[in-house]
Amino acid sequence: MNLFRLSKGFITEVHRLFALFWWESSDVEKRLHWGSWDKLCESKNDGGLGFCDLSLFNQAMLAKHCWRFIKWPNSLVVRVIKGRYFPTSDFLHATKCSSDSFVWKSFMWGRELIEAGSRWQIGNRSSTLIYEDRWIPRRHSFKVQSPRVLGRDAKVRLLLNTSAKEVEAILSIPTGSNLDDYLLWHFEKDGNYSLKSGYKLG
Fold it and tell me: Which superkingdom does the taxonomy of this entry point to (predicted)?
């Protein structure tokens, strides 16, 4: 489950078995279902029962591997995979191909979750692109929403002005660091990806 994307048919069948167990039903005797499976999978804070959605959990587990690809690019496993699938780029910019293995396609699906929940932490402002990269610390969109006034390849250090909606978020970014800009997971205080927050985001 943490190396392959499970098929929709398999997940549907497992969810069906969960539901039969929960409602104490069988193929012979049917009992009343008090809510849809999607509703049962919603978090308790949202009125559901917090049941695990296997598809989202599967993606969150694959995303954990993807986070390791990003954070430990010099490990032996990552170097082997890089040599096969993205020899001239980094993992975040690796491309998909129809001839790729099923495992690699599964990782590409997990990467979608990383892209949805990660953003760049600004350090020396030398590498993060203003309009293309995700770097503004706000919950729903990490990209600049203001009209473009600079070129596509402009870095954060060249940012001159922005809309009033983004000023507060941008001003909250610590400055003065000599470290390179680095990727962090927005939904954890320490900036590292966790299965729990990845599943919740999914």
Answer: Eukaryota
Residues belonging to the chain: 202
* Residues 6 or more apart in contact with residue 95 via CB below 8 angstroms: 86, 89
What is the phi/psi pair of residue 188, to 5°? -130, 140
CB 129 within 8 A of CB 181: no
Instruction: Answer yes or no: is pLDDT of 76 > 90.
Output: yes
What tokens does 77 get? 């496993």
- The neighbour count for residue 10, using CB atoms within 10 Å, is 12
Residues 178 and 123 sit within 8 Å (Cβ to Cβ):
yes
Distance CA 159, CA 136 (A): 12
pLDDT of residue 25: 57
Residue 66's CB is within 10 A of a number of other CB atoms, namely 24
The reply to whether the predicted model has a pTM over 0.70 is: yes
CB 3 within 8 A of CB 103: yes
